[in-house]
Amino acid sequence: MPGIVIVGAGQAGASLAAKLRASGYLGKVTLIGEEHVPPYQRPPLSKAYLLGEMAQERLFLRPESFYAEHDITLKTDCRVDAIDTAGRTIVLGTDVLEYEELALVTGAVARRMPPAIGGLLDGVHVVRGLHHIDRLAPEMGAGRRVLIVGGGYIGLEAAAVASKLGLEVTLVEMAERILQRVAAKETSDFFRALHKAHGVDLREGVGLERLTGEGRVSGAVLTDGTELAVDLVIVGVGVTPAIELAEAAGLVIENGIAVDAQGRTSDPHIWSAGDCASFPRRGERIRLESVQNAIDQAELVASNMLGAGVEYDPKIWFWSDQYDVKLQIAGLNTGYDRVVVRRGEKEGAMSHWYFAGERLLAVDAMNEPRAYMVGKRLIDAGKSADPAVLADPTSDLKALMRA
């Protein structure tokens, strides 16, 4: 039998393969990845790994021996060129591989600056994969001048690491404020103050016009006319879902590879999960870029490949580490019309609670794990909270769970 083929050896791919075996699947499992290393965790790449606090082997999700021990054929440094949906095969160079069921868990790719404005100059980096960080790390020397383009979580995390390493950091954000697309003004204000306190030159409402240099970047011209001398540039302007294979195969694409509630694409024998997949939720189609979604959705797809017939209902949470602040986010704040601010028990700790009318949508918790846990449990249970109680820092958050 051809078995199950998984294209994409990231968090979702590794989770899917392991879940198939844990669920008792005895057929052939093939896991294919373009990188030369086994599946690894991405969050520490731009933090602990870049800081030199984590060895490469500690990034690996499982020891390389795990795959052979569980009869999973792991093909690294291997690119899939095409999918033949009629013949149920994939093309890898000169090889053709049959599949019974196929999973596309191809993840996402970092957006780059256009070549026309200097995006291909040496010294211009993104921070998505292991090879990106290995290329960037030798350049992160104390006293060097780094320009970070983008004030989302990717850019802010890069700024925090660069500041810790002693670089001179300038960050530009084209929008009116950092985190404008993903967070309330209150959260933007918190992180703006944090970065400025660590010496970051943070410029909002200013974009990058072009990078300059002969072969290697040496300067930047901003949209307000400012010219900066720079030694390197980190581009943190988000990611795009890796849909090329799916699109060429004729699958439906809608903000990623469109899947149904069970993770099946428009082809009945092809499935998708993780950063590249969009799925239906509460009357709309969404795509989540998070580790937890990659794991949960991939494991659900594994179960559904084996006939479980379960629909996906994600428990949504994210996190970001910047300096000594751990931001934990529960829920999605889409459509909020009110933010309740709660001061934490410790100095500088804070939580921001998003409401749409009387309904609690999400919470941003900065060094406030209790607020995060209570908020997450309320949201997962479909419960709300009294804004007046939340705003009172002396109130007992746990009591909200009993209400």
Q: Any low-confidence stretches, pLDDT <50, length ≥5? A: none
Tell me the helix content: 25-40%
Radius of gyration: 22 Å
- What fraction of the residues are assigned to beta strands by DSSP? 25-35%
**General form:** globular
Strand order of the largest sheet: 3-2-1-7-19
First-residue to last-residue Cα separation: 54 Å
Care to count the β-strands?
A: 26
Given helix and strand content, the structural type is alpha/beta
Summarize this structure briefly.
This protein has 403 residues and is α/β, with parallel strands linked by helices. The protein contains 12 helices and 26 strands. Strand 5 and strand 6 form a beta hairpin.
Task: Give the topology.
Blueprint (H helix, E strand, L loop, with lengths): L3 E4 L3 H12 L6 E4 L12 H5 L6 H4 L5 H5 L2 E4 L6 E3 L4 E4 L2 E4 L2 E4 L3 E3 L13 E2 L4 H7 L8 E5 L3 H12 L3 E6 L11 H13 L3 E4 L3 E5 L6 E4 L4 E3 L2 E4 L3 E3 L2 H5 L8 E2 L11 E3 L4 E5 L2 E3 L4 H15 L11 E6 L2 E7 L6 E6 L6 E7 L2 E8 L2 H12 L6 H5 L5 H6 L1
Parallel strand pairs: 1-2, 1-7, 2-3, 7-19, 9-16, 10-11, 10-16, 11-12, 18-20
Antiparallel strand pairs: 4-5, 5-6, 8-17, 13-14, 14-15, 20-21, 22-23, 23-26, 24-25, 25-26
Protein model, in words:
It contains 12 helices and 26 strands. By secondary structure, the protein is an alpha/beta fold. The strands form 7 sheets. A 5-stranded parallel beta sheet has the order 3-2-1-7-19. Helix 1 runs parallel beside helix 9 (291-305). The longest helix has 15 residues, at 291-305. The mean pLDDT is 96.
